[in-house]
Amino acid sequence: MMVSPRPTFSTMRDGSMQVLSTQRFSLFTVLLAMTALLAMATVPTAQAQSNGEGTIYSRFGLGSLDGFSSSQSQAMGGGGYALRSLNYNPNANPALWSDQVYTRLSGGAGFQSISAEDGRGNSGQLTSGNVQALQFNFPLYERTLGVGLSFQPYSRTNYSAVRTGRAPVGPQKETEAEYEVNFSGSGGLQRLRGGLGYRISDALSVGATADLLFGIIESRRRTQWPDTQALRDVIVSDGVQLSGLTSTLGAHLALADVLASDDALSVGASVTLPAPLSGERYRTLDEDLARDTLSVQRGDVTLPWAGRLGVSYQPNARWSFTLDGLFEPWSTFSTSFSSSGGQTSPARFPVGGTRTLTDRWRLSTGAEVVPAGEDNLAGYFAQVAYRFGGYVEQMYVRPDGQTNLYEFAATAGVSLPTSLAGTRIDLNTTVGTRGTTSNTLVRDTFVGVSLHINFGERWFQRRKLR
Questions:
Q1: 204 in the Ramachandran plot: left (φ > 0), alpha (ψ -120 to 50) or beta?
Q2: Distance separating alpha carbons of residues 242 and 277, to the nearest angstrom
Q3: Predicted confidence pLDDT, tens digits, the chain (466 residues)
Q4: Are 161 and 58 spatial neighbours (Cβ–Cβ below 8 Å)?
Q5: Is 362 exposed, middle or buried (0-12, 13-18, 19+ CB in 10 A)?
Q6: Domains present along the chain, CATH in parentheses
Q7: Which of 460, 463, 464, 454 is nearest to 5 (CA)?
Q8: Other beta carbons within 10 Å of 274
Q9: How far apart are CA 129 and CA 153, in angstroms?
Q10: Any residues with CB less than 8 A from the CB of 326 and at least 6 apart, and which?
């Protein structure tokens, strides 16, 4: 006996379940899929960190922040803090985990192409690929108590830039030689999350997580002298290794028959507490394959809290609409790392200093339509979920210390049903711009595509004698 992979609105209200006969897939298949996803998580991430190709804005602060919640919400503008579904377990609001019926394993990878240009006509083409998230969820008590586990990037530093020129060399500075300086960055923070979602009543559910943040962020400056053998190439690396714990609390309110009969209105909110991280900052000097440590310093940083609020409205079984907001006060970011003189100095971490950080906010909206609605006998393409949305975001970095930068994007995607109830394959795309060519800054135009696989199966069922 299976629960319908797409819950109806009456299902959301009274907890009844539709019956759908389908083929079960074995535990071996799930474990094999998990192994493949873990391998996928290792390889693309290593490539993304080594190729140094991504947005130049990941040079500042902690890098580009990652807000992936689920493949469904990604195609609907990236929010979905109040959107309920049996096929997805949104990571941004643990209260939604209380709806679980399936044991679910989800994973996805994305590819992004970026065209960057500045106000002087210089341009470049950049690419990057990465794993977006691995999620494992299961119900302890169906539609009442659910468990969620996930691993995903919190931030990414991944850029490459080149500066060339000529400088005087020699004992008396009698000649000039051409030099080339390559700036690159790699690494980022990862987030390992585990938590519970609990339904208090038909209308109200709550959830909480424990989050472990950890990772290494490194920036490198390589100076080369192509015209002379008298000067050696030098690589100076600045890095920071951090780890710490935080928590996310969530709540969800579901209302029925609000504007019409058989409709559903949901409000969801979550708050991530400030994250105190500790670790060490280091500087190394690389010559050829050797690396000499020049300095090591221990210190602490505190990441700001994050608040999310979303509204979801489902007028019928075919349509769903979302409207979401996010706020993170990065202007409150603090660090105890100090300069060699003993004075507090953020000049080396975060990169660019705290003056380059500002409050981040994001507004998103989206819609989903499933032409078949509750008709499980409809044609295949009528059961496909079609999604679209968009968002506007004020970025948390200001490289020049005064210009606010914005990111605008449109999103879309399709969710393909399979012969396995509760299992879907999602294809998503994002197109947008970030930054500006004013004030010697850079504007990115980006196109991203991603593939997500969402396995779902009912486990731990008590068999009944016939």
A1: beta
A2: 6
A3: 333 333 444 334 333 333 333 334 444 454 445 445 444 444 433 333 333 457 889 988 899 999 899 999 999 999 999 999 888 989 999 999 999 999 999 999 999 999 988 888 777 787 878 888 999 999 999 999 999 999 999 999 988 888 888 877 767 676 778 888 888 888 999 999 999 999 999 999 999 999 999 999 998 888 888 877 777 788 888 899 999 999 999 999 999 988 888 899 999 999 999 999 999 999 888 765 567 888 888 999 999 999 999 999 999 999 999 999 999 999 999 988 865 433 333 334 666 666 789 999 999 999 999 999 888 889 999 999 999 999 999 999 998 888 999 999 999 999 999 988 789 999 999 999 999 998 889 999 999 999 999 998 887 665 555 5
A4: no
A5: buried
A6: 9-457 (2.40.160.60)
A7: 454
A8: 15
A9: 13
A10: 67, 79, 306, 307, 308, 360, 361, 362, 364
